[in-house]
Amino acid sequence: MKFRKVAAVLLAAAMTASMMSGCGKSAEIGASSAKESSDAAEQTNDEAKAEEEATAGAEELDAVKTSSAGEDVKEFTAFFAVPGDELNDDNEIQQKIAEITGAKVKETWLTGQTAEEAVGTLIAGGEYPDFIDGSDGTAQLYAAGALVALDDYLDNYPNLKNFWSEEEWDKVRQDDGHIYWIPQFGNPYEEDMTATPAEAFWIQTRVLKWDNYPEIKTLDQYFDLIERYNEANPVMEDGTSNIPYTILCDDWRYFCLENPPQFLDGYPNDGSVIVNVEDKKIVDYNTTPTAKAYFQKLNEEFQKGIVDPESFTQSYDEYIAKLSSGRVLGMVDQAWQFQNAMDTLKQQGLESQGCSYVPLALTISEDLTPQYMSEPAINVANGVGITVSCEDVEGALQFLNDILEPEVRILRSWGIEGVDYEVGDDGIFYRTDEEWAKSTNSAYKASHGCAYSYLPNYTGLLADKINTSDPKEQPSEFIKSLPSDTQECLKAYGCETYVDMMGGIAPVPGPWFPMYSYSNTMTTATAGGTAWTKMGEIKHEYLPKVVMAEDFEQGWSEYLDVYAGCQPEDFLSEMQEELDRRIENAAKYQ
Amino acid sequence: MASKAEKVKSPVKKFDWKEFKRQKVLMIWAALFVIYGIIFCYLPLAGWVMGFQNYTPKNGLLHSEFIGLDKFRQLFSDTTFLRVIRNTLAMGVMNLVFTFVAAIGFAILLNEIVSKGGKKTVQTISYLPHFLSWIVVTGILHDILSGTGIVNELLLKAGILSQPLNFFAHPKYFWWIVAAANVWKETGWNAIIYLSAITSIDPCLYEAASIDGAGRWAKIRNIILPGIKPTIMILLLMNVGNVLNAGFEVQYLLGNGLVQSVSQTIDIYVLKWGISQNDFAIGTAAGIFKSFVSIILIVIANQIAKRSGEESLF
């Protein structure tokens, strides 16, 4: 843990350094983050003072520690093998939730490692935090016997028990028939209110505005627009040159390079394969004609200098720094992966130059209907589990149960009334502009907000059934939360949300969806899992080569040769088995 | 040397309780280090059992099924592993040769500086990078070798390149970048030991050489180099055993998908398959193989040194 922290600090330092050398604009980033931290310092000073005053009369030192958090607050630890932001120890809403539930959770997140490495290190050490979400390493945790079976307990915790239906709980059962983790996402209460997309081709609003907001539907139109824009406007207002298109290719994040072929073909995000709905057969998207066309396009654009030549060697931090500078016109990404960059763009006021990103749902040809967004579905591969190191399993489950109570749900997403949001006469929650600005300030988030974002929570509506769970999804608020250039852009297209830009949300194609929840649990213990690991390695090496190749055809056939050597058929047949099994299982509940 | 001394006295010495008591303090210190060695170097070797088992953390060392040499067979039929051995050896040898030559050369050059203050300053500055962690060094490397970094700027200004070169995208540069990073980081530090060896050379020799009309160059060749030869040999021997420790952090931090076929070392392989894929057995097998090769290398190097009448470790 110590090493990770040190590494994080150093990485942060290296990142700042690289941003400094990047371009002139970055001075402002540095300044703004410096300001943030001084704000945070001030805030903690104030708090410390307030606390001092409050406890001035207290006789014992211990009282200082417990006074703000109430009596006997249980402290749990949690590790989530995904990147995230740590909260300050004296976080205000966390204290409030602790007063209600009698417990708090100290969360730590992934830094500078892959999920599998982090989880593998924990397994090798044999000591775990109380709660864990192993992300891609979940299967390893189960195999190592690190998780406590939860099914015997669940009946005592109605909020948790009712969180998923009986059918869904059965999907989470492992081969020994027990439930070891609680999937925490994709669970709308009453109604799905999703307003933000996941993966998409993103483009800056200035590019669209320059061409009077044209219809962009295909990959060719997208790159054509970027090319024309960049030719007419090669630099930003301050003279920094644009990066027309960049690709994130760092470690496991290289899906931004490899998985668009499934979307371009009009299929939803099954993640690792395409499922042909007609004959219920697995199709490998890595070698389809669409995949070839997509990589050929990237190759062409790379030769023209449109694709950032540093795409395949940049780290995630360098990528985020590039996006935050506003230089990058377009890229493929998951919205959650560059949320920080969006916030930074806003804080720097780059929305005035039209540097905010809007999503586009592209296909390879106009006759296809894109399905970038699907209705929420349970992802059975991951979830939060309780480890064998936890000494108070009942207490831990009680806490998970309690944070699903209506008042805690409001605290987790909206915050405190009068501070973070207001209530209108009709009971509709809203935020003032100032409250919205605060909500994107990272220092404020760390000292005040506490979403427990990787512990179970509903999306959709709150218990009152009139307000949304996520403030950003509140229809009356959504437009306010957006940067001004995005608002203008959405208006020009006649859209109310990002979702409208993406052509709406497609229904779940079938009970098997999403297939990635199976491929994510594969390990090298099976032939299919070994093939899957090798395919990943080969794609990570050869797809960049294909894009950079001087002779595309030769590069592509080389890739196909090496790819075939990984025996992808082993992987595909195991996926087919799982698909058949899922369809069969679902039939039992109809 | 010790064995020669013993031969003069008596070849077999009986245990002498009095002698032992007299050296009580020494014995206690020695015992501490023996215990340290047992706990941290020998006890962990019990874990090697994993390499011969179908090990799962759930069953532990005692209850996992024995599978003999299966994991080793799997290892050597894996082309990735063979490539990883090649990378490790190549980078190990390159690091060894370049850091070695650079350190000796640097020590000699430094020794030639007459000004005391200048010498001290250069020496201090040159060994500072040793204290930087690799994560910082790779950060710096990423920056100076980036498209807008100083190296590209210089090459562009000098007209050697017409457009920036992405150094990390080409497998052919990777080993050289690693070697250069090692040289930059360790030269000053490694030079210290040679410098002290040079200082211990009898000044009379220099005077005598001067009288014979030897210039600086001749002094370096005929006095300094022979004078530090024993130090060089011992350090070389010790480092040969380290060739397979070609590094982990540098390659891990500098590597990317494009260069992974040349960047991965045995240590990264162990991390990837042992820790990430949870196959502790194959990770252990790779580790055993690495130790085995290291021991062989060190024995061979030692024999060569002995045969050629030089200093040897054992």
Automatic annotation (TrEMBL), chain A:
Keyword GTP-binding appears in the UniProt entry: no
PROSITE patterns assigned to the protein according to its UniProt record, in alphabetical order: PROKAR_LIPOPROTEIN
Location of the region described as Disordered in the Swiss-Prot/TrEMBL record: 24-69
Keywords, ordered alphabetically: Signal
InterPro entries: Bact_solute-bd_prot1
Keyword Signal: yes
Cleaved signal peptide residues: 1-21
UniProt-recorded name of the protein: Aldouronate transport system substrate-binding protein
Record organism: Murimonas intestini
From TrEMBL, chain B:
GO CC annotation terms, alphabetical: plasma membrane
Record's keyword terms, sorted: Cell membrane, Membrane, Transmembrane, Transmembrane helix, Transport
Protein's GO biological process: transmembrane transport
Compartments in which it is found: Cell membrane
Species of origin: Murimonas intestini
Transmembrane segments: 25-45, 89-110, 223-244, 280-301
Family note: Belongs to the binding-protein-dependent transport system permease family.
Pfam families: BPD_transp_1 (PF00528)
Domain ABC transmembrane type-1: residue ranges: 85-301
Record-given protein name: Aldouronate transport system permease protein
SUPFAM superfamilies from the UniProt entry: MetI-like
Annotated membrane topology: Multi-pass membrane protein
InterPro entries: MetI-like, MetI-like_sf, UgpAE/MalFG_permease
Main subcellular location of this protein, as a coarse class: membrane
Species classification: Bacteria, Bacillati, Bacillota, Clostridia, Lachnospirales
Ranges in coiled-coil conformation: none
